[in-house]
Specification:
Radius of gyration: 29 Å
Number of helices: 21
Oligomer: single chain
Number of strands: 18
Number of domains: 2
Largest sheet: 8 strands, mixed
CATH topology of the largest domain: BirA Bifunctional Protein, domain 2
Distance between the termini: 56 Å
Length: 490
RNA sequence: GCAGCCGUAGCUCAGUUGGUUAGAGCGCUUGAUUGUGGAUCAAGAGGUCCGUGGUUCAAAUCCACGCGGCUGUACCA
């Protein structure tokens, strides 16, 4: 009555906020390795590091201002003590725009930078989609030419190659101007009322092509669509002819001649095609394998954001099992982003890779080289009869030789210590109890070999003897014998 | 955001038409088998039955609302 309930009333329930997660050792190691590798690539391509803070003024982030009804829709925001709204960054590009605007005069133009860090989105978490995740981002500000777009695409490809994913991804490229050309060619006029709304619906429908298929997209372009749950999504209200034209663009593979036919004489369409041609030529010159480049007008991305070339990095083009993961990164040209601050248009383009998402995909692909953690090498057991300072000296000697070692901390029995070593996937254990000490020896147990042998062991005395998995050697030969045992395990 | 389903131990779940002290398996901790990962045996820890209110002599069980999870859908920088 007293114990449980009294404790219950005083303790706090340990719980993780929804949509957030703890990252275990395997993913943490993998994430660090990926970030390090990508940073090196960017550095060698002449991009410099820039780290902006996690918090920004909400209005500097742009789009998602806290409003009366839903102060936390999209972004996490909070009030500073001077009443100004702060918000957690939801990507790395908006803070870059703020940085560029603030430091414009002192920056070299073009300005090339990379950055990585956690970003936050306050929205409904879905499986594999969290409210905090790691992004890697690279951008070029102040270069209006397709050469910059091509270089960023090529860098994205190089990044994927560096992560060991050569031939496991593809770059789907398109151009926002193609979509402008399409809208023009189906008779949507910029100056008509309701254009913005209609444009948005058309673009969203196109974006759903891959997930929902042609029939659903037809409905969405026309009268609207009712889904399984009974929810109704209003359509764009296009006529039959227009719908067919849109579908022609987004259905199946497309090549340049058919693209030209669809775009016709529209100015934006022509410009978009021209830019794509130039980009692809330059990408190849940058060393991108032609096979990973895929012309794909279904790529839409940020609706009010991009102004020119856009692209997405998708996994396993040939492996349909992976298409459900969608894109692991993408980017494009966003010439308007700094305009908000400066009043003048500053050309900019960039891309980001979703590190957290990429890890999830690699895990599902069982890319073990990318996802395995770093295991412990040695656990030094600590028995009642073990000399503490000697155990510490052994630990230190191993560590100085760059062997990952730890001395058991605690007073449990030997059995529990062995279980601990097993749980930690340690490769071997070192024992120096009374028997070893008398003879100035140590016992090395090969845990990997021991596990293999255990399958055939029947009675418990064999366990204790250890057989080939265990031997005693002179104390001075510690390093030599440990190294030998570790080497034998590879 | 909208809709449907679900919520009992760390995990997977049982719990009768509402009825005494809420259970099992696995896992976890400790111990035994001379000082060894497995097996076996023994003991132990671990619960606000999601929360709040209601119906009732009586609620894990029925009702309402909230919260959380899953699925679909919307949004997605």
């Amino acid at each position: 009555m007293d114990g449980g309930s009294a404790r219950g009333s005083k303790t706090v329930k340990a719980r993780l906020p929804k949509g957030l997660r703890d990252i275990g050792e395997c993913e943490a190691y993998a994430q660090n390795r990926m970030l390090r590798a990508l940073s090196e690539v960017c550095t060698s391509w002449g991009f410099s590091a820039l780290e902006t803070p996690i918090l920004e003024y909400a209005d500097a982030l742009g789009k998602f201002l806290p409003d009366e009804e839903r102060p936390n829709a999209g972004v996490f925001s909070l009030r500073d003590d001077d009443e100004q709204w702060l918000a957690l960054r939801y990507d790395l590009t908006a803070p870059l725009a703020r940085y560029v605007a603030e430091n414009y005069d002192s920056l070299p133009k073009p300005f090339r930078r990379y950055q990585h860090g956690p970003v936050f989105r306050n929205e409904k978490p879905d499986p594999g989609r969290f409210r905090q995740f790691m992004q890697f981002d690279a951008d070029i500000v102040g270069a209006p030419v397709p050469l910059a777009d091509a270089e960023l695409c090529a860098l994205a490809a190089k990044c994927m190659d560096t992560l060991g994913l050569k031939e496991k991804y593809s770059l789907h490229i398109s151009n926002r101007k193609l979509l402008d050309g399409l809208l023009e060619s189906i008779g949507l006029n910029k100056n008509e009322s309701g254009f913005a709304e209609k444009r948005l619906r058309v673009l969203r429908s196109i974006d759903k092509m891959e997930r929902l298929g042609a029939r659903a997209v037809t409905d969405l372009l026309g009268m609207g669509r009712k889904d399984k749950s009974g929810d109704y999504t209003p359509g764009a209200g296009l006529d039959q002819k227009a719908i067919e034209k849109v579908l022609a663009l987004v259905e199946g593979h497309i090549d340049f001649p058919s693209l030209e036919a669809i775009m016709g004489e529209t100015a934006s369409g022509k410009e978009g095609i021209e830019q794509l041609h130039e980009m692809i030529d330059l990408m190849k010159a940058f060393g991108v394998n032609e096979d990973v480049i895929e012309l794909d007008p279904t790529v839409v991305r940020g609706l009010d954001y991009y102004t020119g070339p856009i692209f997405e990095i998708k996994m396993g083009a040939s492996d349909s099992r992976l298409t459900r993961f969608g894109s692991v990164g993408g980017g494009g040209r966003y010439d308007d982003l700094v305009t908000r601050f400066k009043g003048i248009e500053i050309p900019a383009a960039g891309f980001s890779i979703g590190i957290s998402r990429l890890y999830t995909v690699l895990e599902a692909m069982k890319e073990s080289s990318a996802i395995e953690g770093e295991t412990l090498d040695v656990v030094i057991l600590l028995l009642d009869s073990t000399d503490r300072t000697e155990a510490v000296r052994i630990t230190r000697e191993l560590r100085e030789a760059n062997i990952r070692a730890e001395v058991y901390l605690g007073s449990s029995g030997m059995r529990a210590q062995m279980r601990y070593a097993d749980r930690r996937s340690a490769k071997l254990a070192i024992i120096q109890g009374e028997q070893e000490r008398k003879r100035n020896e140590i016992t090395i147990r090969n845990l990997v070999l021991g596990k293999e042998l255990s399958a055939s062991i029947k009675d418990s005395s064999q366990w204790k003897e250890g057989g080939e998995a265990q031997r005693s050697v002179a104390r001075e030969r510690l390093l030599e014998e440990v190294s030998k045992t570790l080497a034998s395990q590879k």
